[in-house]
From TrEMBL, chain A:
This is Peptide/nickel transport system ATP-binding protein. It comes from Lentzea jiangxiensis. PANTHER family: DIPEPTIDE TRANSPORT ATP-BINDING PROTEIN DPPD, OLIGOPEPTIDE TRANSPORT ATP-BINDING PROTEIN APPD. GO terms for cellular component: plasma membrane. PROSITE patterns: ABC_TRANSPORTER_1, ABC_TRANSPORTER_2.
Automatic annotation (TrEMBL), chain B:
Residues 97-289 form the ABC transmembrane type-1 domain. This is Peptide/nickel transport system permease protein. Gene3D superfamilies: MetI-like (1.10.3720.10). Its main location: membrane. It is a multi-pass membrane protein. Keywords: Cell membrane, Membrane, Transmembrane, Transmembrane helix, Transport. Belongs to the binding-protein-dependent transport system permease family. It comes from Lentzea jiangxiensis. The chain crosses the membrane at residues 22-46, 101-125, 137-157, 163-182, 270-289. It comes from the Bacteria. GO terms for cellular component: plasma membrane.
From TrEMBL, chain C:
GO terms for biological process: transmembrane transport. CDD domains: TM_PBP2. It is a multi-pass membrane protein. This is Peptide/nickel transport system permease protein. It comes from the Bacteria. Residues 112-321 form the ABC transmembrane type-1 domain. Its main location: membrane. Keywords: Cell membrane, Membrane, Transmembrane, Transmembrane helix, Transport. The keyword Manganese does not apply. It comes from Lentzea jiangxiensis. Gene3D superfamilies: MetI-like (1.10.3720.10).
Amino acid sequence: MSALLSVEDLSVDFGSGSPAVSEVSFSLTAGEVLAVVGESGSGKTVTAMSLLGLLPATASVSGRALLGGRDLYSLSPAALREVRGNEVGMVFQEPMSALNPVFTIGSQIVEAVRVHRAVPRAAAKARALELLRLVGLPEERFRAYPHEMSGGQLQRVVIAMTVANEPSLLIADEPTTALDVTVQAEVLRLLRDLRDRLGVAVLLITHDMGVVSELADRVVVMNGGKVVETGPVREVFATPREPYTRTLLDSVLRLDTRELPARPAGEPVLRLDGVSVTYGGFRAVSDVSFEIGRGQTLGLVGESGSGKSSLAGAITGLTRYTGRITVAGREVASLRKADRGRVGLVFQDPLSSLNPRATIARSIAQPLLLHTSLRGAELEAKVDSLLDAVQLSAALRDRYPHELSGGQRQRVGIARSIALDPDLLIADEPTSALDVTVQARVLELVLSLQRELRFACLFISHDLAVVQHLADRVAVLHRGVVVEEGTSVFAAPREEYTRRLLASALTVSA
Amino acid sequence: MSTPVARSVPAAISAVLARDRWALAGTVTVVVIALAAIFADVLTALEGHDPYTYDSSALDVNTGLPAGPFGGVSGDHWFGVEPLTGRDLFAIVVHGARTSFLIGLAATLVSIGLGVLVGAAAGYLGGWVDRVVTWSADVFLGFPYLVFMIALGAVVPAEFPRVLLLVVVIGFFGWPSTARVVRAQVLTLKERNFVKAARVLGASPWQVFRTELLPNLWGPVLVMATLSVPGKIGLEAALSFLGVGVLPPTPSWGRSISAAIDWVGVDPMYLIFPGVALFAVTWGFNALGDGLRDALDPRWGGNR
Amino acid sequence: MKNLKFALTRLGGMVLVLLIVAFCTFVVFYLVPSDPALLACGKPCTPENLALAREFMGFDEPWWRQFLTFLGGIFAGRTFGTGVTAIHCSAPCFGYSFRQNADVLELIGDRLPVTFSLAVGAAVLWVGLGVAIGVHAALRKDTWFDRAALAGSVIGVSAPVYLVGLLGILVLGFQLNVVPVGNYTAFTEDPVRWAWGLVLPWCVLAFAHGAHYVKLTRSQMLETMSEDFIRTARAKGVPERTVVGKHALRNVLLPVVTLTGIEFGSLLGGAVITERVFSLPGLGGLLIEAVHGRDLATLLGCTLFAGFLVVVANAVVDLSYGLLDPRARLT
Amino acid sequence: NDPKAPGDAGAKPEKGGTLRILSESRTLNLDPAKSQSLAITSLGLVHRRLTGWQNAVGRPAKVVPDLADTGKTPDGGKTWTFVLQDGLKFSDGTPITSADVKWGVERSFAPAFGGGLGYHKDLLGGGDYKGPFEGKELDSIETPDPKTITFKLTRPYGDWPWIASTPAFAPVPKGKGAEADYHERAVASGPYQVGTYTKGVEVKLTRNPNWDPAKDQVRGGLPDEVVFQLGQDASVVSQRLAADSGDDRFAFGSSFVSPAQLAQLQATPSAKSRVVTSKSGAVAYLALNTQKAPLNNLKVRQAFQYAVDKSAYQIASAGTAQLAGDTASTLITQGIEGREQFDLYQTKPEGDPEKAKALLAEAGFPNGVENLTLVLNKSNNQAEKAEAVQAALARANIKVTIRSLEADAYETETNLSENPNYDLTLSSWQPDFPSANANIQPLFASSEIGKGGYNTSRYSNPEVDRLIEEAQSTVDAAEAGKKWAAIDRKIMQDSPVVPLIYTRNSFIHGSKVGNFFIADFPAYPNYLQVGITK
Ligand SMILES: Nc1ncnc2c1ncn2[C@@H]1O[C@H](COP(=O)(O)OP(=O)(O)OP(=O)(O)O)[C@@H](O)[C@H]1O
Ligand SMILES: Nc1ncnc2c1ncn2[C@@H]1O[C@H](COP(=O)(O)OP(=O)(O)OP(=O)(O)O)[C@@H](O)[C@H]1O
Ligand SMILES: [Mg+2]
Ligand SMILES: [Mg+2]
Ligand code: NI
């Protein structure tokens, strides 16, 4: 079978030291799913983006990418436009900043439908609604603006937009990072269906080995901007040749049905009493109560859109809520400045949570500047040690957020949140964009810090294995209500929804 | 190296000067004129005239226009002379630079500074602060400024330092439009997560403003600021006409320009010298401003 | 309910603003040590005549009382003098101009169409052209087009409107004879002549005001074009024109609309110099005459009216924020 | 100097056509009670008065019959009787009677109709008379029959026939004119009546069918229509008229051509011939506040006579002495009966700073004087001139600060304030009627200090006051003229003002405007005689 896409000797250089991608080659035939895995910052996104000519002007690209005989890198703007979204669709890694904030998601999907096809408006709308259904979103969200949607919902909007024209090649950059396992299963089904029905080829970038083994035919492993290994998934997973691939596979966390190890809880740090969050008339969180003690981690899992981020927003005082939330005995709304420094927050969307005009060192230093008297060299040293702790090279310190990879940005957010040795850490999907090796080290960091500082932690994640690894207790949120909470949620799920959740979890099968 | 902060303005200036030749040209223009203003006395001494002495011998007896072609430009009078008075135009322009430059710049600083602060406060804090700011902006915009100036001209004693008065008055009346533009920007900025992140961290409004909002406001602020300079210089002229401005015979560009408009037909040079000076300064600030904008935007180059 | 409350606050704010504006105008007016009754005193002006004129015009009372009388007149109307020569100004009475011998409201009504025509046309022109040039300058950053746009804008802001207007009349009106110079034709009379006669003033005003729009648009555009959602739009295969004209522009408009509101509002209060150069009988001229002629009634009327327009324009702008950017929706 | 008439040599105007008058002002007040219009300008087109002016080039202005004869006084100026011509009619066809003239004068006393020239009010013993609308008559005016009107003055007044030419002496149909906007539909007695009146934009005058040219010796009434276009920018008007196209050919500008425009017009031959410059005009002077130290010192004041630079002032006002007007040394303006030319402080036009310094030293100010304030009326476009004075005085170590004020604030300061703060002010005076009386009395009688008078030098000399009163009561024009000339000299000895120039006014008109001349007095074109040429 001849290749649909073949990338030859691709190198991308941003003029900042070493090239981001060097001499990458791979190919893809119709109906094939090629997974690209690799370390965070290894050049996966850059590779994908180069194919549609979407890299910033600061990037210099060399090599060839042949799609149906044409070199994508030397297409005229008009021809490239024809390819974009039509022959090749692309799902972006960070869905929360990928959508235009001033248009409704409906109109953005409709635009995707109409841009390559002369479809009447009404038909386009019908198609858009169909697409929304397909990705598991209710039709009434058609009129919602991006900021009114949860991270997972936005990701699904982006997927809907991308598959609108049934492209022959789908580039999906971490398409399921923000999705809980049940929804993830639906999306994977959708992709599989596209492949089976239309012979769509999928270039799947992911850190989730479960997804790889579930969907991919072949896998490309990248590290440090280079392809280190490539081959059929089964082969590579069963007999990895490269040490990096082996570490990668070894780092995969497995979900099992153990009881969680109950650690001794100190006095409650965070306490929620009948907390509800309403947007307009819509109740996103209703009547949630729980507490987290010193040194404890509560894992919060639940369907995409079930209100996890809303709850995190309420706890940090960003979202208006009713009920009572106390941090260390004090009502959230009336926290003093000093107390605020005791609460660390990792946002679900790393990009928008970083000031685009501040270097990452500045962003990490911000809490220190606000709450400590560290300045000058001491501050530098502290920032460097934080960067190091989250596995970021000190060379990145003077970069701006848009010059980092998704995973790198996410780690900046983590570094910032732990800079002040918090008493309470609220982490909203903090590892969703991290490859398993980095993720393992970050989780290790969190655990060791927690042992040391005994902070209380609310850990929101869709990755059940991660939750299991980290949490003392798990709460399951479903449509804004905590349906189940305790240490034995995974061992002995009581609720139907929890059971479904556990059943959908993917495992890496060699 | 010190703590890396959001690219600082001085750092950005040196960066842009090193890289952007247009911005460099703009800066050189501004600096040259600033120097001319500072050393106005030296320059006029070199030329040998002051801006006050009437000299009917430099005028054409039949018309009152400058004697000689091009508005009387000569080795003696570098820019020629003023019609009807024979005062030396070069001396007037360089001495006028003092008044106009100082007032234009200082009043701009006052009005933009005030506008940014007040506008950001209104947008970020919302609630009654916003309401009070919006209302007072409306009051200022709706208020007959001219009447106020006239009243001021009648009330303020002649001894009061005029330049200070002008800077305060022009600056103070200029804030509302900047404030409203900044407020609009802040209304969307404050919904961005990085601003929220700072708030969650316990950053005070001032800290949020300084580290999160301001760096993201440079674009519109620079536009408003660089374009406001000529406006302020023109306003100074209008106010001088109303008797609130600098007292005659102190020269100012604005005054020369408005006087010269009448003469364009017969003595265009009278307009051209101060006019070009004003244009040069404005252009200089704008070229520098555009360069700065680029330098302060880390995404400069952007997506293509 | 929430909307109603919002509307009421806003309306209350407007009234408050107008009251303050009127009050300040009053106070400031009385700061100037001169007497508006001088106008009606005649030459030579004897103290007796002056006192008579003052009494007739209502200037014999303390200023605060006059202010209250003025406010009362808005609701109840006013009468100046007594007997057959009395002048009635029926409610809503915003004062009676003794200088112009007319009800202020009527005067404003006469002048408004002119100013309105001038302002609307100019604003359309300057926003339209300004934004278009700004967008192109941003897209062709650092090219000659960009440089020329900058230089043009700078000329626009630094050249006095009066000069530009005068040159326009001289060159286009007399030398080339392409546009008519002379008097204003009402729209209702002859729309073509109306527009034709206003072309030059529109252009002059637009030239003077356009710079802000060019530069603001350019700067905002440069920022927006590097946002991620632009990348998304491009990845969808959206033509560049739509990327720019829809996705980017919409995100650029907030400050542009804000500035438009402000300038349009104040322009409606009168474009003094332009009206003067082009002999347009608009509100600006009325206001200036009132200022120089110490015509308090007209001054107050114009000021209140201009203030009203400013407040309304700004309110409209505030409301439009929500439409332009859902994140800036009013809370 | 050009002996030829400043005016038109072109084709003779004919009857018919539309004359356009481009006016800077946005108002045109055609209500006689409220108007300060000269007898030969706009108001005269619509309203006749008891007497009129005849002015011609090279001769002093004369009072001539208009509605009536020029008046007779049986008792040396205290009682004046005028007899109206036969068969005069208002524009509505009703006859004009002496009662209508009386009504018009009475009407000018009503507070609702203030603002006009009011020289008659005091003389008629107005006191607390508040006009006819309250049902009272003014006893000092008698109308024994419809043609005769008699004025009984409070004191002898030789210039009463001149006073009878001021706007208030225009007839208003008895019982009418109570409405505030009477000027928009005034009942006319002159050649024109108001056709359309568009506030702030345009006033169109059309023919008054009941005006009889045979009975009017001061009005030509040539054009069929006269259109005032209001609110025109002066510079634009000059440019338009210089371009001379379309309707502008039939137009003239009612405001002075500015120095810059003059310079430009000089360079344009086609336009230059259409610029008319008066031979003379208002006397421009620097008033010295004689009541405030150090200007209460005669020597100091005299120093000013030498310190000023009249030639710089000329150049600053119009570019050249030729266009600006001759330097002045007397108070009475040219074109007025009895004027004598003299110069008590002879020096070069540039002045003599050394002599000024010497006088100052004599007065006890060897180092000059500082901190003098010169107030300026902003609306008079005097900034450049004031600066010229400022620069000239600086040569003699006289340091002056210029404060320019809005017209009203200025008038309040100079004319109304009891205790004003200024030391100097620039001013110019154009008499309201062509008599030396109107030239001297308002400016130098001590009764005119403050309280609304124009004695801005606050000059008070009982001797002069007495002489003024005496001259005013002199009926014989020649005799009165001599007396005024003597007063002129006497005042100048006290040096309350420094006469600078007799300001020339320049006007420009379109090529089809004929008979556009400026006589010796006043320095304005005679609107009543202008016509359209073929
Ligand atoms: N605009 C840019 N300027 C400079 N360097 C960049 C830019 N964009 C990306 N990089 C760098 O290029 C490298 C590859 O980035 P890329 O986004 O492809 O990583 P990735 O493999 O997608 O990682 P992740 O899994 O974290 O998303 C990273 O080291 C990143 O810092
Ligand atoms: N500003 C808003 N206005 C209206 N609805 C909102 C708003 N923000 C969130 N929602 C809705 O509230 C619900 C909960 O959103 P939330 O972001 O808390 O979900 P989540 O559990 O974090 O989901 P995910 O895992 O996909 O991030 C969603 O249905 C979302 O569409
Ligand atoms: Mg990536
Ligand atoms: Mg979420
Ligand atoms: Ni994941």
